[in-house]
Design brief:
The chain is an alpha/beta fold and about 350 residues long. Helices cover about 45% and strands about 15% of the residues. The strands form three sheets. It has a five-stranded mixed sheet with strand order 2-1-3-10-4, with helices on both faces. The longest helix is centred in the last third of the chain and has 20 residues.
């Protein structure tokens, strides 16, 4: 999943106008809140880290559900579709749901997580270690973007004084990879699959796995319309399928890679690079094997969002119960011998 969160928040900041255009906060209610249909939508490109989505869809289809996945370029358009009743579940970040509720009382609920940590890796030229980063050029897409915030937060948590690093704006992941391979910059946060391909050139190494360093950072999950969240059996089946898919992803390297390739998510990667990418996701605890919807994970994720210029603040964030429905994840956990609230 491409990190779309920080770019989306500014647009979702105007969510009150978006809701008005959909006929009010209840305008997205569907006529059947518990049908055998699950309409998923995602905003932004799909990549290697999204293979579990297709596994979850297959599990739902095996139970007799009609499942579809639409992919649109803009996260705000994806959320608008849910509000307008044209889709049931947006595969987005919890902060997007919180922002939509805070700014316009959107009729949505966050009902489960797919990615519980970041899938960014900081790659570096071979000469750099965590002990000699002073003066290094750190390439990002600019202040307030996902890679910049996540990368700097990880370095600072490791004891690095970020003021001693020279931050330069280069562009998206591909531009950053090109720049570091050409020796124009020294460090860059890039997605796990891109990091694997870059490392395979022998010109760079993985310096930091931000997922393992930062811990809870709910990058993507299920943002459902209130009407869908109220449909008990379908909502529960959907959450069950996604948790099962995350558990499968966390334990089945070959199956995961096969699923990614079957759905065109491994384009340009060799088998070795795919294996490296999966191993980085697993070692970073990327897969939300318990649904990752506990208060601690949500609160920590929000704390990173507060670093985004113009984003949510502590005072503007709605109480968790206003935009999160934890019942379905807890229902799965208790049915599988775990305590409700486990992350």
């Amino acid at each position: 999943m491409r990190q779309r969160l920080f770019a989306a928040l500014a647009a979702i900041g105007g969510i009150s106008l978006l809701i008005a255009g959909c006929g009010g906060s209840s305008g997205g209610a569907s006529s059947n809140s518990d049908s055998k249909t699950v309409r998923l939508i995602q905003g932004g490109g799909l990549d290697f880290s999204d293979a579990a989505i297709y596994k979850a869809m297959a599990l739902l289809k095996a139970e007799g559900y009609k499942v579809s996945l639409a992919n649109v370029a803009d996260p705000t358009t994806a959320l608008r579709s849910v509000l307008a009743g044209k889709a049931d579940v947006y595969l987005g970040a919890p902060v997007e749901a919180a922002t939509a509720v805070a700014n316009g009382g959107a009729a949505v609920k966050y009902i489960g997580s797919l990615a519980q940590t970041s899938n960014y890796e900081i790659i570096a030229l071979p000469k750099y270690t965590l002990k000699n980063l002073s003066g290094a050029k750190f390439a990002t897409a600019g202040p307030g973007t996902a890679g910049q915030i996540v990368g700097i937060a990880a370095l600072e948590k490791l004891g690095i004084n970020s003021s001693e690093i020279h931050q330069v704006t280069v562009g998206g992941t591909s531009a950053r990879v090109t720049a570091i391979l050409a020796g124009q910059v020294d460090l860059a946060p890039v997605l796990a699959s891109d990091a694997a391909a870059a490392v395979a050139t022998g010109k760079v190494k993985i310096l930091v796995n931000t997922g393992s360093v930062l811990g809870d950072y709910l990058q993507q999950g299920l943002i459902a319309s209130d009407s869908f969240a109220a449909g008990k059996s379908t909502a529960q089946a959907t959450v069950n399928a996604f948790i099962e898919a995350e558990r499968w992803a966390d334990t089945n390297e070959s199956g995961y890679i096969s699923e990614a390739n079957a759905n065109g998510l491994g384009t340009g990667l060799t088998k070795s690079e795919e294996e490296t990418a999966w191993q980085q996701l697993k070692s970073g605890n990327f897969f939300a094997v318990n649904g990752a919807i506990c208060n601690q994970a949500i609160t920590q994720t929000l704390s990173y969002s507060y670093l985004t210029p113009g984003g949510l603040t502590k005072s503007s964030t709605p109480k968790i119960s206003a935009w999160v429905d934890q019942d379905y994840v807890n229902g799965y956990l208790t049915a599988h011998g775990k305590t409700a609230g486990t992350c």
